[in-house]
């Protein structure tokens, strides 16, 4: 049914309905308006100081000063694909310096608008040029924006089992069964490490089984990696899952984000790498990526990618960054232990061991939506209704507050 013609004086957009705010952003607004001095933000996935303040890496601060003082820095438009050096170093970071795909020029990398933009460009590329299956299988659950990126490109969304609420761990058998039943050629979205929202990752031997199944079934892997280094504290170790899929000679897509691992959230720094069978195919793929990017945003921003490239290309700065990433990871691990100990000391019912078994920024607490709502109302704690906790939002002073809130929510039978 067509919308009625607007009358004189009416807005041509008067027929547009109002839609609710995206939940995670609505939570941010509610948090900012809460006058309580006890309020605690464990929602949006950003790494903060132990006092809950924005965190900036020392090496990033140092590089920014160098860039400001560099009078030769240009503000001209970048090429469509971004800073070539940033792209080369991004591929090296995630695929490894000795990657056969890099040595054989079988990978093309383009600078994108952080991880979100990388996923969106990758989805659009597959919708236009991948003619086997227009169905993407995602973990259940997955990052809330994943379905949005792919459905916007016209791809159908299906899920595979991943998280087991009974064990608060990986439903590995269910995952394998669902991928085995997927049609040949289907796209499979995989999170390389620090799974969002659960904090649950396959082991390396499990990744090898996943790789064998995907290759045997002719499925197409698309990796999302936003937390490289924040699980093990080692940048290379956290990239091993992806490297398994590259060293076998097969093809895949990899979306990278520097938001969390360099603290460059608002700079929107990311990259999309497409690993191909041959150098010739990679060249053709890059030409098509340019055609996709041109009508969207034409070229990416320069400042954040310049920071990342400066760090990645300088041995001393890279080492300094690696040390800072390790310190961030160590703090996350320590915070998990503190929360587990606090719940154990309170005698909170349930097995909370999953908190220290999970990795990265997040843990799926096991709390239900009613318990989360109770904690918000009574303790001014802000977190998604699915019970996901951003561990980087906690510190020694706030862990006891959260433990008290969880204990109350659980023992009161909410």
Account of the protein in words:
44% of the residues lie in helices and 14% in strands. It is of the alpha/beta class and 414 residues long. It has 16 helices and 13 strands. Helix 9 links the parallel strand 8 and strand 9. The mean pLDDT is 94. The chain folds into two domains: 117 residues, Aspartate Aminotransferase, domain 1; 235 residues, Type I PLP-dependent aspartate aminotransferase-like (Major domain) (Aspartate Aminotransferase, domain 2), CATH 3.40.640.10. Strands 2-10-9-8-7-3-4 form a seven-stranded mixed sheet.
Taking Cα atoms only, what radius of gyration do you get, to the nearest Å? Answer: 22 Å
Count the domains: 2
Mean pLDDT: 94
CATH architecture of the largest domain: 3-Layer(aba) Sandwich
CATH class of the largest domain: Alpha Beta
Helix and strand sequence: HEHHHEHEHEEEHEHEHEHEHHHHEHEEH
Give the termini distance in whole angstroms. 45 Å
Task: Name the beta content range.
Answer: 5-15%
Helical proportion, percent range: 40-55%
Instruction: Report the CATH superfamily of the largest domain.
Output: Type I PLP-dependent aspartate aminotransferase-like (Major domain)
Q: Spans with pLDDT under 50 lasting ≥5 residues?
A: none
**Largest sheet strand order:** 2-10-9-8-7-3-4
SS field, number of helical segments: 16
Classify the fold: give the CATH topology of the largest domain. Aspartate Aminotransferase, domain 2
Strand tally is 13
Largest sheet: 7 strands, mixed
The shape, in one word, is: globular
Which class best fits the helix and strand makeup?
alpha/beta
